[in-house]
Design a protein that fits this description.
This protein has five helices and no strands. The longest helix has 29 residues. The protein has one domain. Helix 1 runs antiparallel to helix 2, helix 2 runs antiparallel to helix 3 and helix 3 packs antiparallel against helix 4. It has 139 residues and is mainly alpha-helical. The chain starts with 10 loop residues before the first helix and ends with a helix.
Amino acid sequence: MTAPVATAPPAWASWLGAGGLIPFAVLALTLWWPGLGQQAFSSHALASYGATIASFLGAIHWGLAMRDQSGAGAGPYLWGVTPSLLAWLALLLPPAGGLLGLSVLLGACLLVDERRYPYYQLQAWLPLRRRLTLVASLS
């Protein structure tokens, strides 16, 4: 595999990432809005969205491993499915525990990315990943 040159994400990727934070922020706000009476729906929707995003973050590693011809072994593939499985388990927990678990999982995904992105020369994407993870995890 020819290694890509480490460049910053294009502006459209930053905009899409920021747009992806809208459901996190809106749903988190509805959890704290006293008169809405939608806490059960909002917590379920927030957890479901968080699980979807965690699965997406794991899938990135699967895709990168598929492109990598150096034979990195099973590690990237194993990690590629781990966020999906952990997110699914978080969805089975009571709302507070599930949301906390997903927040921790999003942080773990970032830690793995911090370690693996430089291998793929994608370290220029890490500042964006950090910002997105911070907002998503706090939500």
